[in-house]
Amino acid sequence: MLANQIVQKLNATALGVWNQNLMNKDYQYVFATDLMSDALAMINNSCDQTVLLTGLCNAQSLRTAEMLDLELIIYVRGKKLDEEVLKLAMEMGFNVFSTDYSMFEASGILYQEGLHAGD
């Protein structure tokens, strides 16, 4: 599923889109967690095809995504990044979005669209 389709299905708003090429990228997996240690331990394959869903709106989520080579982060429950963290996301070149859906709802929507668990 293309990133722009994922964003549309989740009614997500852009917090920052710094790599337009990624918006046409195909994603196959989604990993949903607020525990970045789980992401580090469980995301093993196809990191470049995995979307991270999280409610953790701090630099730790960005650093984790960076370590795993993830490029698309969607914050759930309407969470927003503060100015400092948003600046860091921009420097790192991440595309970051926010959806009002809960993590459970967002995961279900993406599962119905054919994305698989990213573990």
From TrEMBL:
<dbReference type="InterPro" id="IPR028979">
    <property type="entry name" value="Ser_kin/Pase_Hpr-like_N_sf"/>
</dbReference>
<protein>
    <recommendedName>
        <fullName>DRTGG domain-containing protein</fullName>
    </recommendedName>
</protein>
<dbReference type="Pfam" id="PF07085">
    <property type="entry name" value="DRTGG"/>
</dbReference>
<dbReference type="InterPro" id="IPR010766">
    <property type="entry name" value="DRTGG"/>
</dbReference>
<feature type="domain" description="DRTGG">
    <location>
        <begin position="5"/>
        <end position="110"/>
    </location>
</feature>
